[in-house]
Amino acid sequence: MQKAIVIHPKTDLYTSFPDNCRLLEQEVCDELLSGWTVTILERQGSWLKILTDYGYSGWLNDCGLRCLNQQQCRRWADSPFDVLLIQRLTDVLASPKVQAPRLTTLFMGSHVIACVSQEDGWQKIQLADATTGYVPAIAASSLPRLKVIPKEPAKQDALRSDILAYASSYLGAQYRWGGKTHEGIDCSGLSFMSYYMCGITIYRDAAIQSGYPVKKIPFSEIKPADLLYFPGHVALYIGNGQYIHCTGNVKSFGCMINSLHPDAPDYRADLAESLYAAGSVFV
After folding, report:
1. Residue 273 C-alpha from the chain's centroid
2. The pTM is what?
3. What are the pLDDT digits (tens) for 156-171?
């Protein structure tokens, strides 16, 4: 099966094969970011059925992908020079100065390749389409690959704080079904990206799925950064009964903080009364 890489800043993934004549009637199920690799499963004209590295499948247009050979796959999948963009938005410039032309703008979570060592606060990078440019060095970080959750309480607490810090960065972002960026994000996209930025790949949808690191826990054991599950919805627990989530409720329609306590001003009765499970990777 052919491997490929996303070359656009972001691209929509559709649930079913999109009829070009009825594209506006198709349902978006996910959003992929620049530098993410996928496996091509099937082709129908200019549309490809793909499988993501996190086990999600759907259809996208081939204009958003570049096929990779084995050497390129190793470079992007296993290279120590693979880095992650960690700011909400990062302009990629043609040269290492603020006045340089902007080549493109990438979102947090995009993958790039570091070409040379940092110089005067700038990092030269290669993009997924093989072009090169420059970003502020503080915008790029070594890709975290957390294969084992730390057991030490202090390290767990630090990881929980990092997860919630990424989640909090989306506060105020609008709700977008299938979204994964600060331009628009949905509930499971918020949970996925908050963990992904810390090197943990959880299930993309609002459910505890076998084969992924989130395991069901008793409500009495919930700690910050654990996940709360409602019918068709998921949130990250903050502490003191509060949680951060991105909601499509028309009265809020965005990423915000709410409470499970009935006497709190930000209480959502519809969610608190339908909470059915809690999950954690720290088990």
Report:
1. 28
2. 0.95
3. 999 999 999 999 999 9
Give the list of residues 6+ apart from residue 8 with CB closer than 8 angstroms, or none.
34, 64
Q: Are 4 and 38 in contact (CB under 8 A)?
A: yes
Respond yes or no: is residue 187 known to be catalytic: yes
Q: Look up 245 and say whether it is catalytic.
A: yes
CA distance 64 to 169: 27
Provide the residue type at 86 as one letter.
Answer: I
Assigned token pair, 255:
């990423």
Distances (CA, A) of 115 to 73, 81, 125, 168: 16, 7, 5, 31
pLDDT tens per residue across span 13-59:
999 887 655 666 678 999 999 999 999 999 998 999 999 999 999 99
CA distance 97 to 209: 46
Given the residues 187, 198, 246, 255, select the one marked as catalytic. Answer: 187
Angle value at C-alpha 33, between 79 and 76, nearest 5 degrees: 15
- Candidate list 8, 111, 182, 233, residue with the active-site label: 233
Catalytic, out of 111, 198, 245, 246: 245
Residue 79 pLDDT greater than 80, yes or no: no
At a CB cut-off of 8 Å and minimum separation 6, what does 94 contact? Answer: 100, 101, 102, 103, 133, 134
Q: CA 164, CA 161: separation in Å to the nearest integer? A: 5
